[in-house]
């Protein structure tokens, strides 16, 4: 009976190890996704920065064009003959100056946005570095974990095989069937006069036999093997 309890404990442990091994790649993937997300955010920021830089160059060219026009228009001032033409030129010059002012304002606000985005990018670079470090750490850590889990797995499997080879073939077959049938619990504890697998009462005489622990007794309700633990 004790062997069956040990076998079930080993099976539960082996299942747990397998589950942990399964989960490890998922944890690494989660960290990788975090890294990729930051990289994507950085790419978007770089794109925005490039676009603002292009817009800034366009604005500078606009200012240059207007400045050239301003010089030409001012030159015309000395050539005009009438007051009317003169004041028309003055208002034209005024208009050009206003245009230059507004272009320069736009250029300034583009520069401010640019600085802000460049600061954001620096921040993201720092974040990326940190996440890359985390990723490396986690990858190493998980590699170690897998090695340890494999060692543990092999050891537990060896012990399991030892138990199985010393068990009666028919008994092991029943155990395997029950494991399947009873969703991973083939051996149940007998306690407070009930089977802890199905929580139904066990006849008194049967209970006494179980407590002796020298024969294989199964629950009359759920067929699980019953063991007595003090
Ligand atoms: Zn039962």
Report a brief summary of the structure:
The chain folds into 2 domains: 24-150, Orthogonal Bundle (Helix Hairpins); 172-228, no CATH class. Helices cover 79% and strands 5% of the residues.
Strand content: under 5%
User: What structural category do the secondary elements indicate?
Assistant: mainly alpha
What characteristic shape results from the CA principal axes? rod-shaped
CATH architecture of the largest domain: Orthogonal Bundle
- H/E order of the elements? HHHEEHE
CATH topology of the largest domain: Helix Hairpins
Q: Give the integer mean of the pLDDT values.
A: 95
Poorly predicted regions are: none
Question: How many H/I helical runs?
Answer: 4
Could you tell me the radius of gyration in angstroms?
A: 41 Å
Strand order of the largest sheet: 2-1-3
Helix percent reads: over 70%
- What's the structural domain tally? 2
Q: Give the names of the bound compounds.
A: zinc ion
The N- to C-terminal Cα distance equals 14 Å
As an assembly, this protein is single chain
Largest sheet: 3 strands, mixed
Number of strands: 3
């Amino acid at each position: 009976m004790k062997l069956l309890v040990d076998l079930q404990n080993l099976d539960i442990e082996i299942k747990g190890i397998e589950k942990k091994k399964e989960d490890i790649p998922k944890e690494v993937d989660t960290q990788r996704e975090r890294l990729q997300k930051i990289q994507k955010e950085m790419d978007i920021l770089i794109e925005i920065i490039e676009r603002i830089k292009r817009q800034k160059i366009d604005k500078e060219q606009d200012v240059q064009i207007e400045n050239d026009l301003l010089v030409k228009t001012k030159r015309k001032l000395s050539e005009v003959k009438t007051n009317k033409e003169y004041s028309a030129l003055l208002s034209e010059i005024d208009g050009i100056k206003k245009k230059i002012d507004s272009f320069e304002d736009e250029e300034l606000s583009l520069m401010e946005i640019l600085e802000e985005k460049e600061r954001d990018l620096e921040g993201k670079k720092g974040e990326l570095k940190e996440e890359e470090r985390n990723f490396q750490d986690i990858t190493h850590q998980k590699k170690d974990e897998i090695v340890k889990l494999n060692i543990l797995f092999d050891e537990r499997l060896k012990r399991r095989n030892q138990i199985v080879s010393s068990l009666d073939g028919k008994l092991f077959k029943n155990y395997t069937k029950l494991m399947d049938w009873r969703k991973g619990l083939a051996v149940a504890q007998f306690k407070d006069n009930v089977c802890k697998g199905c929580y139904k009462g066990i006849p008194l005489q049967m209970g006494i036999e179980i407590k002796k622990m020298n024969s294989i007794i199964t629950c009359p309700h759920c067929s699980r093997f019953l063991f007595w633990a003090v």
